[in-house]
């Protein structure tokens, strides 16, 4: 998963308006464009992640191999390396036809469709290497789309619509993820129920997911190029491509690393969501191993799981507005770690749908709280508007390290300890991030960031 952005501003900025005026902001064309782009960004993440893991488990792939597949998320970790290219370079034909940002949007989405179709044609049981390669391509094109969408959202929305745009993006991103998890599982079950063999049912399920990327492509075609992007493009026309890339890359890195306690802050970014990532890597195989059907899992994730996620997002926003940033991070860090105990309890209870619903709700609710608060922190770190896109790509890429590399051994740990103990370990892996949080708070790190509007 890529995280959305927010802008720093005076905490006492604008007074509350009537509910009609608030609703009207969400119906602005620019906000609606961002909403559909959020759906397009959230859709591919599970296709190379949790949904793929269910497919592999049903195909008989062992837990150790499944755990290694966390590594296909590498592009989400390294996307900051080519973010300056997206900022500085033009895509032949596409940029001329659609503009700087929209050209990259359409180009990355078409590549994403091709990558998902390639993944659909693989066989996890016979050729896990080709599955990994296709999943890696999906992750790479998806990460590129995230870079462009983040920049487009920041540049296209005026100050008065930034908050509504962020909220719409977060909600649509989550819905996109749920469509590619629960929705994909329902679609596969539907194909299988109609008499299509299971391997072919999975293939056609991924074909449907590839077609849904066209929602983002149509949105990009309907949208207009941000004025800020046009101005920036015009201002750098005389520069060579190499000069533009160099300025985008060096400025973003040097400005951030010159700050006090920069390395500790980066380590905290890596570790804060690690507890979620470590458990999330094995949640789908765990549920299947307990004896639940894919439809049981999909129905609960799509139903009560979605409700818990949206409510958790509002709760996270309330916490971030109500308390200082450091306090909010303490609340988010602790609750998202403790939620893993609900899965330990589920492992003991066994195949009970009410217990599964409670565990999924607890995980989705607390994860959403932690995510919204974490987004506020990442946004506060991006203080220089000249480098927002590249810096945000760097920070979200580092946040993906826990999901990608540190979580790669989750399958080995689960196989060695058993499910109840595994989820207790998932709680314990949150301790390093909380230690760093205490150290940064003592050093005055959060006071230096200033207020953040969520």
UniProtKB/TrEMBL annotation:
**Could you name the Gene Ontology cellular component terms for this entry?**
membrane
Please name the PANTHER family in this protein's record: MAJOR FACILITATOR SUPERFAMILY DOMAIN-CONTAINING PROTEIN 3, SOLUTE CARRIER FAMILY 33 ACETYL-COA TRANSPORTER -RELATED
The superkingdom listed in its UniProt entry is Bacteria
The subcellular localization recorded is: Membrane
Keywords for this entry? Answer: Membrane, Transmembrane, Transmembrane helix, Transport
Name of the protein: PAT family beta-lactamase induction signal transducer AmpG
NCBIfam families under this entry? 2A0125
| Membrane spanning residue stretches | 31-55, 104-122, 128-149, 170-191, 203-223, 263-288, 300-320, 327-348, 354-380, 392-415, 421-440
Q: Which family does it belong to?
A: Belongs to the major facilitator superfamily.
Q: Does the keyword Aminoacyl-tRNA synthetase apply?
A: no
Q: Main subcellular localization, coarse class?
A: membrane
What are the GO MF terms of this UniProt record? transmembrane transporter activity
Domain Major facilitator superfamily (MFS) profile residue range list: 30-444
Query: Which SUPFAM superfamilies does the UniProt record give?
Result: MFS general substrate transporter (SSF103473)
